[in-house]
Amino acid sequence: MNAHLWTWAPDTWWTLFLHFLSLSLMAIGGAITLIPDMHRRLVEDLGLLTDTDFTSAIALAQAAPGPNVLFVGLMGWYGGGLGGALASMLGIMVPSTAVALAFSRWVATRREQIGVRAFQMGMAPVTVGLLLATGWLLLPGIEHPRALVLSAVVAVLVWRTRVPLIWLVGAGGVLGALGWV
């Protein structure tokens, strides 16, 4: 459901703020790793967004220049207008920013301790697993074989080459505009 720009919906704003606030503290690897939970809550449980709104928010934010987290603001916009966008961005940014700042200062003074190094090494597979879960959720279905092929080709190119990501995004946009996917 698309909200009007000036819709007064404090209950929705509060719901968005609290949801993204709780997710913010779990966003190891960035907000993009939490897309499966965002989808479950915003689309399936609350019905604030449609599947199309959800995937459009992610695609638009990823194609736009700027921080990766822009899709959260778009989800808030689709679910609660301007107030929803502000509530979502505050919810996702404030706690994680405060924790990241405090933790980075703490780690900088203890970088050589074995526990700090072990934690950093242990978080790498967690981040990879969360990114794979995100990719699985956004992967096109079997009813779109061309999109599956394109997804596989892009995954291999990202993994095995140094092709700039912006070129891959652009190529995907061109193929979509031409009706290939």
Kindly describe this structure.
With 181 residues, the chain is mostly helical. Helices cover 73% and strands 0% of the residues. The chain is built from 7 helices and no strands. Helix 1 (10-24) runs parallel beside helix 4 and helix 3 (51-63) packs across helix 4 (70-108).
Strand and helix order: HHHHHHH
Envelope shape: globular
Using only C-alpha atoms, the radius of gyration works out to: 18 Å
What's the β-strand tally?
A: 0
Overview features:
181 residues; mainly alpha; 7 helices; globular
Give a brief outline of the structure.
73% of the residues lie in helices and 0% in strands. It is an all-alpha fold and 181 residues long.
Note the topology.
Layout: H1 10-24, H2 35-45, H3 51-63, H4 70-108, H5 114-138, H6 145-160, H7 165-177
Helix pairs in contact: 1-4, 3-4
